[in-house]
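Record pair follows.
FIRST:
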Amino acid sequence: HRRRDLDKGRLHAGRRAIYNTSATSVIQGNIGVEIIGAAGTVSNAGTIIGGYALGVVLVSGGSVTNAATGLIESPRSTVQLQGAGNVLVNDGIIRETGSFTSGFFAARLINIGTVVNAGTIAGIAGIGGTTGGALELGGGLSRLVMEPGAVFVGQVTAAAAGNVLELAAGG
C-alpha cells in the first residue's frame, strides 16, 4: 500500500500529468491534485482525497479518467475542470463528502467539455438544506454521456443553454 501525503499535489506547466495506477495507492492532501499553468491529465485507479478543498482541479483544463477501481473524494467540488476542451471519464466513484453547506458539486465543468459516466458521481444536495449536487455543466455546448450503469446521486445541472445529454446504448 503506497501513500503520498501532500499539502497540495500541485504541478506547474513543466509537469502536467498524474498517473495513480495502482488500486492500492493513495494521493492525499488539502487539495488532492492541482495542475496549473497548462492543460493537465489525471488518470486514477487508486484513491485521491482532497482533505479540505478539492480532490482534483485542473485550472487550465484537461482530462480526468477515473477507473472502475478509482475513488476521488473531497468535501467540496471534488473534480473541477476549469479550462476549455475538458474531458471527464468516470467508471469508478467521484464523491463529495459534504463538510460544506452549499453550492458544491461532486464534478464541475466550468467551461465546455464532455463527461462520460459509467460509474457513480455523488453529491450531497438536499441533505440538511444544502444546494449543489452531483454534476454541473457550466459552459454551454457541453456533453454528458450516460453509459449503462451510470449513477448520479444529487442533481445534474446545466448552467447554460446548448448542453447535450446522450444515452449510450446498453451492452
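SECOND:
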Amino acid sequence: VYCVAVVAAAGGLTRALMEALLHVNAMDAWQPWTGFSTADITDGEWRQMMAVNVDGPFYVARAFARTLRATRGRLINIASIAGRQGTPLLAAYCTGKHGLVGLTRALAEEWRADGVAINAICPGSVDTAMLAEGMPGAAAAMSPDDIAGTALYLAAAAPAAMTGSCLDVFG
C-alpha cells in the first residue's frame, strides 16, 4: 500500500494511517520520505526543515508504534549522507538529517526488545528535483530506483537483528 501524508505536523498522519490500515491487516514496514532544499535560510525555513526531517519522522514513529511492535515490523527513515557529514551551504538540511540519524538510532535501541527493526538510508546525490533545485549543476550518482531497492531490502530481506543501521548509499 502506498500513501502520501504531510508529516511535518502530527495531524497529517491520521488519514494516511487509516488509509494504510484499511488495505492491510497489519503494518509490516513504514518508510517516510522527507526532503527539502534551501538556499538563504530564514527562521521559518529553518523550522520547516526541522519539522520535515525530525518532527515528521518522530510523528510517524509515534503513530505506528503499537502496530510495529505488535507485528515486529520495520521502520525505514530516509536520511542523507548530509546526515553523516557536513555539506557547505546546507547547514539546515544537514542538521535536520543528523537529527533523523539520531532519532533512528535512539528508537532502534528503545524498540529493539520488541523486535522492531529501525534503520535509515543515507543516500548521496540522487537524480531528483530536490538535487536540481538545491544544488544546481550537481551530478546525480544514482536514481530513485537505487534508493527504492535499498528500502525494499531493509523492509523484506535484511536480517531482523539489523536495527539502528544507517546505510550510506552513493556512487
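COMMENT: Helices lie at 13-23, 43-71, 91-111, 129-134, 144-157.
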